[in-house]
Structures are given as C-alpha cells and as structure tokens.
Amino acid sequence: MNPIERGKITLDAWRARRTTRAEIAERQRRRLVEMLSFSRRRSRFYKRHYADVPEGTTDLTQYPPVTKPMLMEHFDDVVTDTAITKAEVDAFVADETQIGERFLGKYPVWTTSGTTGEPGVFVQDETAWTISDVLGDRWIVPAMANRSSLSRLFTQNIHVALVAVSGGHFAGAAGLELMRRESVLGERRLRLFSPTSPIDDLTAELNQYQPAILEGYSTVLVELARAQRDGRLDISPALVLPTAEPISESQKRLLRDTFDCVVRELYGATEFVPIAVECDHGNLHANTDWVVVEPVDEDYQPVELGTPSDTVLITSLSNRVQPLVRYNLGDSITMYEERCQCGSAFPIIEVGGRQGDVLQFETDEGEEVPIFPLALATVVEDVPGVRRVQIIRTAPTTLQVRFDVDPDATEEAVWNQIKGDLQSFLGNHGITSVTIEAAAEPPRRERRSGKFRHVWAE
Fold first, then answer.
1. Residues sharing a CB contact under 8 Å with residue 213, sequence separation 6 or more, in sequence order
2. Is the pLDDT confidence value at 449 over 70?
3. Given this model, what pLDDT does residue 80 score?
4. What stretches of 147-217 show up as alpha helix (H) in DSSP?
5. Model pLDDT for residues 22-39, shown as the tens digit of each residue
6. Close Cβ partners of 407 (under 8 Å, ≥ 6 residues apart)
C-alpha cells in the first residue's frame, strides 16, 4: 500500500472517531457492500457458500455463518489470491526463521490454536495490517496527550514491551517482529517478553528494559502490578494495555493505581485484531466502521441488546485476501444501546469467554507463585502431535491433562513428552511437588457456549 492510500485510511478512521451513529453506519454499510460483492466474485468458497443468497443484499442474516474449521478445510478456495495455497502457507509458518517475514514477500500471516482448540492460519492484506494499528491509535493517542504521559514516553525512549507467547507466527509475537524488521527504530524500541518465564525473571528483565508502553496478557499484567507493589518490579510506564484475556474493573483499577498511568483494555482476535478499544470512561467501543459485530445465540439468531450472547459473528471489512464473513469467533459478548459519556457514537460492548485461571502453586521453599493460563497451555500445545488440550487443577498439587493427538501420533509417546515438559516448566518456577495426570476423557466444550476453556481450577 502506498503512503497516500495508508494516509486516507488513517484520516478516515480518525474522522470517524467523533462522528455520528448514522455516519458510522454509512461507513459500515458502504464497506459491507463492497466486501460482500468482492468475496462472492473472487472467492470460490464464498461463491458456493452464498449461492442461494440474493445478489446485492446486505441482510447478513441471509448469509450462512462460517467457522474456523470450515475456512481451514476450504482454505485454497477461500483466499482470493491464487498464488496462496494452504500447503505453502503451512510450510511457511512451520519455519520459525520466517517469523516477522511476509509470506510471498507480501502478506503477514498469523496462526492460532484459538479458544475453540482448532488450529487456524490467517493471511492479512495491507489494509488489514494498516487498520490493526490505526484503530487502536485513534482511541489511545488522545489519552496520551498530557505532560505526564509524554514525559514518561520520552524518558523511557518510547520502549514498547509486549508480553506474549513466542516461538510461532502468533499475531502478537510475529506482528512485533514484523514491525521490528520494517521500522528503522523498531529493533531498539520493540521487545518481546515471554509469559512462560518465572515471574522473578520477567520482573528482572522489565526492570532492565524500562518500558514506556507495557502490553500483554491481562493475567500477567495484574501479577506484574502486584510485583510492583511488593517492590520486586520498578518500572514507570506511560501506558498499560491488557489484552488477550478478560480483565475485571477491579483489576484495571489495580493497574491504574499501581503504575499511575493510562490503562486501556484491548479486545481483539488473531482473525481481526482491533475489535474494540477502551475509552476514557472505561467502556469498550467496537470499531464498527471496519468490523460488523453480531451477538447471537447458539442457533446464530440475534440476541437483544443488553443480553449476553452465546457467541459472536464478525465480518471483517478490511481483509480481502482471506475474507471473513459472519465468522464464528466463539466469544460471549454483550452489546448495549446506551451512549457512552465519552461522547463516542461507537457501540459499547462487554466481553466474556476465553476464560483461563491463574493457578497459584507453592514452591519447595514455601513461596506462592502464579502460573499463567496461556503459558501453561502453550507448553502442552507445543508438544508434537497434540491437537487440543485442557488443563485442570483438580487438587492443590494435582494437574489433570485432557488432550487429543493427531492420527499419526502415538498417544503414549505424546503423553510422556507432555508430562515431562510440564514437569520441566514447573520445575523452572521452583515447583516440583505437583502430580501430573492424564485424564480419562478428551477435551470437551462447555455445554452452554460450545467453547473450550484451556486452564482452570476446580
């Protein structure tokens, strides 16, 4: 994308921030018409999938939803660039040396196992890549326009710290590496920190780095706030961005009070990064000028405003290389009619789902340490042959693991590595007295939501 086109997208996004509901709806309608027409013309999959839908209609309830497994099964027909094939993309993401590179020298590619446990590969075009930054900036930058925030930003050399799982083409880690490679100052000002590190190691690394902006998994940031209060962490960020996991109002207040800085929750997904961003009044506003958000019940029927959904369907209005039309994201959200006191016309949403518990264990020395859900799940997901996993603490010192294996994998060998890797991971945190058991049953979805929780305590 040339600078002029990028500038147009950026300017329009900023103008929309203070516009009316009618003008936001018009932007959405215009982009939806274009996306539906494009998808039906250029994607073989959508042409078939929507063969019975009248041409030109924008009534999304007439369009059958799609799921991640469906899009992965028909990947080659879904994408609109015939140079892209699932086999070549799979080979690309299997090569960790390619993290931060563009597929075919053109497309960012993100991977995810997702909260439904199904692996996914999502190719981004330049418009999608552009708005992943712009839509967040339009909410966050104005909040930083004060003397205290600006002073901290420049005192800390605009260091950005992202706490996210590495070792794969995940949106957070791979996106950061792509920015590092393509930005003149990115190598010095962008750094990835692993949530799998022992908390003392993580605090020591952050103390040395001194981030101006701290972004990452909500559970990890809350624990870092506790470390700051205890005196183990000593940083002074201008901005803290909890994401990837639900966070409560009391936890956000803890972050604000502890770090004395701007805190903004981000809600998004690998499939569409900036779904919603928190405003000055603590409400999440959905970026509906660039994404259609449909809270629905288990039968994909719309739920009333103010009612928690069973799942949510999203339609990306930016990504044309791998269109997402009424894509089942799997999260439970509540959308409200009420206007926010901040003055924005963008709708307010609350997010549930994707829940994971922080598990507290006692070390051999008697110290209680937190183990974060995504870090623990990643240990098992990284074992070759594992398809899906759930980890449940069934007793204070017992972890039970539910897992599925690939058809060509040997279950006994996979289990032996799962058990060994978990023991090693916990041992690195000083925890050696935990019993790790294989569950008799495979991973299963929650009955009501149809989702997988990855980690929790009974």
1. 153, 158, 159, 160, 161, 237, 238, 239, 240, 241
2. no
3. 98
4. 147-155, 171-182, 186-189, 199-209
5. 999 999 999 999 999 999
6. none
Give yes or no: residues 303 and 210 share one domain.
no
**Are residues 340 and 369 part of one domain?**
no
Same domain, 165 and 192: yes
| pLDDT, tens only, 164-175 | 887 788 888 899
Examine the pLDDT at 451 and tell me if it is beyond 70: no
In a domain, 148, yes or no: no
Tokens of residue 119, six digits: 């692996």
Higher pLDDT, 432 or 373: 432
Phi and psi at 142, nearest 5°, equal -60, -30
Classify residue 330 as exposed, middle or buried by CB count within 10 Å of its CB (0-12, 13-18, 19+). buried
User: Coil, helix or strand for 205?
Assistant: helix
**How many whole angstroms separate alpha carbon 293 and alpha carbon 300?**
13
Q: Which residue has the tokens 């792509």?
A: 178
The tokens of 444 are what?
Answer: 């299963």
Structural element, H or E, at residue 424: helix 411-428
CB 138 within 8 A of CB 14: yes
pTM of full prediction above 0.90:
no
- List the helix and strand counts (H, then E) for the chain: 15, 21
